[in-house]
């Protein structure tokens, strides 16, 4: 009985004499939380098209003009349009058909003109 009264066997005292263990666990937990936050921020930056932190190479307002060359079949062109729509739905970057007034345009094309068989 005397031993129990001195704190031996008392679960509330477990780890009380080991502050370094407790702070180590807290530090590990804090690092884990920070790492998760950084991963979430990186994921969000990628989603928003913000891979370039300087902003020098970003498309204005996240809008990307594109033009599809006539090297594709109608079916291929349809698939490209569907992929662009999916990209627009899953990210904050918006691809849109280029107008004649835009200087910088993404050209989606194929230089391959030979037989594929």
Automatic annotation (TrEMBL):
Pfam families, A to Z: Astacin
Molecular function terms from GO: metalloendopeptidase activity
Domain Peptidase M12A: 48-117
Region (Disordered): 1-30
Cofactor: Zn(2+)
PROSITE patterns: ASTACIN
InterPro entries: MetalloPept_cat_dom_sf, Peptidase_M12A
Domain of life: Eukaryota
Name listed for the protein in its UniProt record: Peptidase M12A domain-containing protein
Phylogenetic classification of the source organism: Eukaryota, Metazoa, Ecdysozoa, Arthropoda, Hexapoda
């Amino acid at each position: 009985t005397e031993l129990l009264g001195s704190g031996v066997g008392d679960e509330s005292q477990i780890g009380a004499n080991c502050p370094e263990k407790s702070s180590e666990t807290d530090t590990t937990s804090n690092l884990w939380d920070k790492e998760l936050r950084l991963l979430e921020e990186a994921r969000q930056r990628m989603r928003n098209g913000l891979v370039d932190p300087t902003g020098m190479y970003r498309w204005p307002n996240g809008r990307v003009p594109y033009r599809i060359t006539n090297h594709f079949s109608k079916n291929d062109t349809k698939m490209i349009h569907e992929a662009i729509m999916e990209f627009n739905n899953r990210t904050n970057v918006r691809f849109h058909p280029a107008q004649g007034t835009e200087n910088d345009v993404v050209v989606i094309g194929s230089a391959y003109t030979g037989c594929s068989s």
